Amino acid sequence: MAEPLIHVQLVYARSSKNFLFDLAVPPGSTVQDVIVASGVKQQAPEIDLLHWRVGIFAKLKTLSTLVRPGDRVEIYRPLIADPKESRRKRAAGKADSSNSG
Predict the structure, then answer these.
(1) In whole angstroms, how far apart are CA 31 and each of 24, 27, 41, 59, 88?
(2) Which residues contact 37 (CB under 8 A, 6 or more apart)?
(3) 54 near 75, Cβ under 8 Å?
(4) What is the maximum span of the chain, computed from C-alpha positions, in angstroms?
(5) Burial of residue 92, with CB atoms counted within 10 A of its CB: 0-12 exposed, 13-18 middle, 19 or more buried
(6) CB 49 within 8 A of CB 32
(7) pLDDT in tens, the chain (101 residues)
(8) What is the dotted CATH code of the domain comprising 6-99?
(9) Chain centroid to CA 67: how far?
């Protein structure tokens, strides 16, 4: 008798649209299997799994990570700006504005 399917989600957010897929996959499926099964790459061809990161519930994982029932697989776009540099610029701007008064 075949094992029952497990239910997982896949999420991907682009600047203009969010994708959320509820999927039922066989036990033993990987993060990559979930991404392929969702069909998200047909709707969002910019996804580059060779260079982009993936995770489960905000924890970085590999494409070969096995998924468990209830997991939320996430595809992360690359950062456009370095968060540390952005904070430095904001802090410098606040310091400049507080000295001008």
Answers:
(1) 13, 12, 14, 12, 35
(2) 23, 25, 29
(3) yes
(4) 76
(5) exposed
(6) yes
(7) 678 999 999 999 988 899 999 999 999 999 999 999 999 999 999 999 999 999 999 999 999 999 999 999 999 998 776 667 767 777 777 766 656 55
(8) 3.10.20.30
(9) 14
Token pair recorded at residue 82: 């370095």
* Residue among 44, 43, 61, 45 at smallest CA distance from 53: 61
- Amino acid type, 84: K
Helices (H), the chain: 31-38, 40-43, 83-99
Q: How far is CA 44 from the centre of its chain?
A: 13
